[in-house]
């Protein structure tokens, strides 16, 4: 019994077709504005997305400072007239100072954003 072998020319043609097909899919994805899954979201976009998910669609970012690594810290508010709330944002999680996990928030703030400014005290101006 003789075994049937795949000719080199057919193999090259098949691989070439696969490369062209993959290139076409990549070109289509980039024209649709799709980002590769390995690219990271910019910190301001990430914080706004996380804040809107937690505080509502009117959430706004007041201050962002770079922490250690991918961590950013700052202040967000639920709307334009609302008081700011401190946050610590990691790529997949945001913690607010008003969360029930206040001890964890303070530990993350101390570890990841040591020079972060405290909010101004709400009192009578002197």
Keywords:
alpha+beta; 3 helices; 126 residues
Which overall shape is indicated by the principal axes computed on the Cα atoms? elongated
- Strand percentage lies at 15-25%
Average of pLDDT: 83
Q: How many individual helices?
A: 3
- Total strands: the figure is 4
- Biggest beta-sheet profile: 4 strands, antiparallel
Distance between the termini: 100 Å
Helix-and-strand structural type: alpha+beta
Point out poorly predicted stretches: 122-126
Order of helices and strands: HHEEEEH
Based on CA atoms alone, the radius of gyration comes out at 25 Å
Adjacency order of strands in the biggest sheet: 1-2-3-4
Structure, described:
This protein has 126 residues and is of the alpha+beta class. It is 38% helix and 18% strand. The protein has three helices and four strands. The chain has helices at 8-31, 43-55, 102-112; strands spanning 60-66, 72-77, 85-90, 93-96. The chain has a four-stranded antiparallel sheet, sandwiched between helices. Strand 3 (85-90) and strand 4 (93-96) form a beta hairpin. The longest helix is centred in the N-terminal third of the chain and has 24 residues, at 8-31. The model is unreliable at 122-126 (pLDDT under 50).
Give a short synopsis of this structure.
The chain is built from three helices and four strands, in the order H-H-E-E-E-E-H. It is of the alpha+beta class.
């Amino acid at each position: 019994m003789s075994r049937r072998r795949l000719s080199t020319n057919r193999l090259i043609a098949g691989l070439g077709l696969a490369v062209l097909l993959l290139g076409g899919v990549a070109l289509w994805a980039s024209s649709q504005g799709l980002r590769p899954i390995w690219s990271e979201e910019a910190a301001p976009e990430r914080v706004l997305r996380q804040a809107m998910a937690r505080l509502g669609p009117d959430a706004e970012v007041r201050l962002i400072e770079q922490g250690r690594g991918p961590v950013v810290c700052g202040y967000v508010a639920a709307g334009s007239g609302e008081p700011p709330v401190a946050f610590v944002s990691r790529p997949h999680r945001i913690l607010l100072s008003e969360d029930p996990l206040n001890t964890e928030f303070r530990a993350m703030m101390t570890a990841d954003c040591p020079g972060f400014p405290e909010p101004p005290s709400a009192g009578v101006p002197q």
